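Exam revision sheet. Question 4 asks you to relate a sequence to its structure. Input first:
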Amino acid sequence: MIKARLAKSILEHEEGMNHLWIQFASIGEVKNAQIKIVLPAGVHRAPNLSHYKENGLGDILIAEPQLSHDILIEFFTCEPVSCGKETISIILAYTDKEGQSIRIENTIHFRIVVEEDTDEIQIDEKVVNKIKQLKAGLDESCPTDRIDYTPMKVFKIDPHPSSELEKKYRVDGLFVN
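Answer key, structure tokens:
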């Protein structure tokens, strides 16, 4: 029911990045459908790239469970983590028509390696193409006009007159009583 694929078979132990593609078929008319992703210690993820809503715990909320879904997740390491074989758990949880809680879990394995061992990398072109399609769709929806974010010059109006020496040697800061 849940299919998971990684863009790369390995992840660098320090400042590494990878993508996870989660696919699942229609689960029918159910309530409270959500996907939880459990990552190894030291591995973090960005909000999902497919723009599904997420709750405060990072669970992905599925608004229309009667449809099939593709969810793309970017995950990464910020600091050095221990190398070795690791597992990502993908848990689909929902309540069926009878009110029973259903939980379906799938796991996918990858290795965390040092930068020198990245020669053994295997790339899944289908995941890479899916990411490119998603990026192309975002580029088309965004206007091509550049937005100018140059900060405006701030003019300070001081209601109290200052002498020339005061202006020259004044240090602006927070006034505390």
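Marking note for examiners. The CA atoms of residues 143 and 149 lie 16 Å apart.
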